[in-house]
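User: Can you predict the 3D structure of Cytidine deaminase? Sequence below.
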Amino acid sequence: MKELQLTSTLYVYDDLNELSEEVQQLMLTAIETRKKAYAPYSKFRVGAALLLDNDEVVVGSNQENAAYPSGLCAERVAIFYAGAKFPDAIVKRIAISATSDTKVTIEPIPPCGACRQSIAEYEVKQGAPIEIYFMGETGKVIKSNSLKDLLPLIFDGSAL
Ligand code: THU
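Assistant: Sure. Here are the predicted structure tokens for Cytidine deaminase:
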């Protein structure tokens, strides 16, 4: 038996202002986008903004459904839209902001497992890491240099 240790490094910023102007702008776009979420059931609003290497910004917000599993997270709405509209573009970074109508969300909210798996597909496809920044409503921002730091041992098409 061998022990396998998996390590990830994430970067925690106390405030959005500590980040570059470009990242701040992308996060402000995510914040604006989360306000357009369709979240009548959870009252939890998530916005995601993607910057592509063609300088396009693609956004997504969570879209819920009375048949709950039919809804989709903000991150997947955004990355699938980017894949559909700009199939050859590289996703450079993603900014995510989440808030609740019922409580204040000050801790950074990481993307769910299904969103990590979906983002992983595009990181593998493009052969370049995707920076991921996530926050709550206000306060700290966490940065991951690559999706792989959020999802070790990713499952990808090489297994098929
Ligand atoms: N949600 C996202 O949009 N992204 C995540 O990574 C986690 C959860 C949404 C899905 C659902 O509309 C609501 O938040 C509550 O789970």
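The mean pLDDT is 97. The longest strand covers residues 91-100.
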